[in-house]
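input
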Amino acid sequence: MKRFLLCAVLFAAAGCMSKPAPEAGPATRAAADLKPINTHCAVDKGDEIDPKVTYLYNGQVIGFCCEKCIAEFKKDPEKYMKDLK
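output
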């Protein structure tokens, strides 16, 4: 019985020490190998995109010039998506 309790405690402790799954961030990292559907920033239309600054939206990789534009895009994505189509 003691052996069973010891095993149960060890398994429970091992579960507590496991790392949580990483959060999905901007497509930024999720779709690093996929090419954005746009060449100019979805928010600042006059600026070219930085290929490292992307966001995955409805299965499409959207490019931005900076991280600040991703935050703006997230407020009303459809407002910006209509111009990308």
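quick obs: Residues 22-84 form one domain.
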